[in-house]
Amino acid sequence: MLANDSPVYLSPPPKNQKRSSKVWKIAFGGWLKIVTGSLLTLYVVFCLDDGMVLMNKETPPRFMYPQEWQHLTMFILLTLDGCVDVMSKNVLRQRCVALERGSTTLGIYVLLLLLLSHVQVPSKVELYVHSLLILVVFLLMLVLTAELWAARSFRLQLIKNFLFLMMGSWLMHTGFILYRPVSGYPWKDEDIMFATTFFCWHVIINALCLVGVYGLSSSWYHCYSPSLRLTGSKEALYHESSSGTFYRLLQDAERQDKDDQSLLPSKSSPTDRA
């Protein structure tokens, strides 16, 4: 966002940097989603001794492992979202940003629906911790939905990044609260107030994280942007389109202006008039 007015930062210069340009085009976020979602899917499938059985053999049959099936659905959606990112950035001829945003938004919609029915244990601590997570996911769903129509809004992107940080950090902390507390003893119902305190600490820490990233980016941009603008502006204009058409049009316009100036009759001097 800081370098939005300088096209040199949009993509690396094409000359003498073929390897770096190829690496730049790789959808790292999409591949990370695919690898993470696939590993978590395999873990859910093979972590159970009986396997992922949908229904037992009793009469009448009952559905088995409801939470594990919801986890499996979440991780499969994460993998599919990564596949959409890779397809849009590396397979299609032209990148479709709307498809990427729509896929992520749909995944958050499904995640919210699964979380609303995810808690089955009658524990106030587990219910409250999941309620805070549902609040973050709900706000994130609203922001992603609004971003489908206002994709270039800096405020929406900032709030989206903050909510993604909140969802990730609080989800990891939830795992320690519910499954393996630091003290080794499970939380009691009267410890709910500390869950709220920890959640507020997550808000402060993630906000400071964003401020730190912005501060480092701003200082780097203001220190190195003048030299990079002077050395890379022409290459960036050429690289802005795949065929360099925009840069060629600029050159043609400059040549045409020079030709027009040469064809104009020059002002005659007094000696010529005499």
From TrEMBL:
GO terms for cellular component: membrane. The keyword Plastid does not apply. Residues 254-274 are annotated as: Disordered. InterPro entries: DUF716. It comes from the Eukaryota. Signal peptide: none annotated. The chain crosses the membrane at residues 23-46, 104-121, 127-150, 162-180, 192-216. Its main location: membrane. Residues 263-274 have a biased composition (Polar residues). It holds the Pfam family DUF716. This is Transmembrane epididymal protein 1. Belongs to the TMEM45 family. It is found in: Membrane. The keyword Transmembrane helix applies. It is a multi-pass membrane protein. Keywords: Membrane, Transmembrane, Transmembrane helix.
